[in-house]
# Entry
Amino acid sequence: MSRRRLGVLTVLLSMSLVVIHDLPASATTIAQEESSTLPGQELVLTDASFAASAMKVPVMNDRDDFSLTYYTPVQWPINPGSPISSYFGGRAAPCAGCSTNHHGVDFTPGAGVPVHAIADGVVVSMPIGGLGTQVVIKHVIDGQTVYSAYGHMQSGSATAVGTRVRMGDVVGRVGNTGMSSGTHLHLAIMVGDWNFIDPLPWMRAHVTEAWNG
Ligand SMILES: [Zn+2]
# Structure
């Protein structure tokens, strides 16, 4: 190859290199300049900005407690769709000797229907006047001592005092014993000793198990 031809080839090659090299090089430069000049693209995490973000969104350690909270399983003692003949609170006495301040709720699911323990517990001796054949179960529900009482059940159907029961165990059958104007289940809930509360809102707030008959 002659020196002249080599020179021409070198010029052509260098020109093409310039052309080929320049276009992508300038395109890359523009792209880099555009991206580097966009505001807010740079993340600088200093101690000060971290502290500020921690202040705006505090770490919620108490959420761990929430996920770890153990909710005691609770179910209805009888079909929650059963008719209710008397609600909690003041009322006209439905029978001679029946209370005017009703400490429970009366369900009328029918005679002989099994009555289930609302939660795990132990049957205790805590006789409640007028309830006839009754069962009182002591529970610890969500860390609180709670008693559930089931009254007016059929004679001989009540689970014995001292028996440990599981939620759902049958503890008696619906009857008409004691001061009663008809076959029904009297359900009472006590939080602490003898502190009767309205069973319906308490049950609605605590029932965790769907009724499955
Ligand atoms: Zn009652």
In short: Residues 3-37 form the longest helix (35 residues). The pocket of zinc ion is lined by residues 86, 102, 104, 106, 186 (CB under 6 Å).
